[in-house]
């Protein structure tokens, strides 16, 4: 059985869900706040949710916006094929948050396809404000993931590979800088599928010797779906 691991924003999802929510009320200028703030990103998103709550935005407003986030039409059928026809184990490792991911997957009826979601915890408090917390309780210390002290995706991949039922093959889909650490912890015979034009593609070119897995680049979601179907199938000898 193959293990297929997806980053979420700009990977499984066509866009960045954090930025989608930051743009929900342009008059609040939260994108400018994000551009100029020194806050770590998860803390920044927590503060952005507080500001939006102060201005009257509630769970239903965020859910409505997230449900409109673009998921390419090729992906739902591909995910169902991987799970039901090929028997793959599907997981998500993302620096987004639980509410955003659950809302989008739930809208498309895809939540049950995933056995685990590793992401930042998020829940609405009694006042109705979404609180977002770190995936790690304290900074993880990984030099590769210094920009995301709340989550080292390489650590998650190592944990998945250390389980008693070790997957015969891992296929990892990502786009960003923090996906490189995950890629660097894959094995020979595993596959990393990097979105063209994003940081992961560049890092794979610059530091190719650090990655034992086969690295492939995709530009369109039709290409990604085809690569997933090809490389997630494991022949029984």
Molecular structure report:
The protein is an alpha/beta fold and 237 residues long. The chain is 42% helix and 18% strand. The strands form two sheets. A six-stranded parallel β-sheet has the order 3-2-1-6-7-8, sandwiched between helices. A hairpin with a 5-residue loop joins strand 4 (122-124) and strand 5 (130-132). Helix 5 crosses helix 7 (98-107) and helix 6 runs parallel beside helix 11.
Q: Percent of residues in helical segments?
A: 40-55%
Q: Compute the CA-based radius of gyration.
A: 18 Å
Q: Please, what is the average pLDDT?
A: 96
Q: How would a crystallographer describe the biggest sheet?
A: 6 strands, parallel
The strands making up the biggest β-sheet line up spatially as 3-2-1-6-7-8
| Head-to-tail CA distance between termini | 13 Å
Strand content: 15-25%
DSSP helical segment count: 11
Number of strands: 8
Order of helices and strands: EHHHHHHEHEEEHEHEHEH
What is the overall silhouette?
A: globular
**Assembly level:** single chain
In terms of per-residue confidence, which ranges show pLDDT below 50 for 5 or more consecutive residues? none
Structural class: alpha/beta
């Amino acid at each position: 059985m193959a293990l297929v691991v997806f980053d979420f924003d700009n990977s499984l999802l066509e866009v960045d869900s954090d930025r989608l929510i930051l743009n929900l009320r342009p008059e609040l200028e939260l994108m400018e706040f994000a551009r100029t703030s020194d806050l770590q990103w998860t803390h920044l998103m927590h503060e952005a949710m507080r500001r939006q709550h102060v201005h009257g935005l509630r769970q239903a407003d965020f859910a409505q916006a997230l449900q409109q986030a673009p998921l390419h039409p090729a992906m739902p059928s591909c995910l169902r094929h991987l799970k039901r026809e090929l028997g793959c184990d599907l997981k998500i490792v993302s620096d987004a948050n639980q509410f955003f991911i659950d809302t989008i997957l739930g809208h498309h009826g895809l939540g049950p396809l995933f056995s685990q979601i590793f992401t930042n915890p998020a829940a609405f408090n009694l006042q109705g404000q979404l609180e977002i917390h770190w995936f790690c309780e304290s900074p993880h210390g990984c030099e590769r993931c210094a920009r995301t002290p709340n989550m080292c995706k390489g650590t998650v991949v190592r944990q998945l590979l250390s389980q008693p039922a070790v997957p015969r093959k891992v296929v990892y889909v990502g786009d960003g800088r923090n996906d490189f650490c995950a890629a660097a912890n894959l094995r020979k015979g595993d596959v990393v599928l990097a979105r063209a034009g994003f940081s992961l593609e560049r890092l794979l070119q610059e530091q190719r010797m650090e990655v034992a897995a086969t690295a492939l680049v995709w530009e369109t979601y039709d290409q990604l779906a085809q690569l997933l179907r090809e490389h997630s199938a494991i022949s029984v000898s």
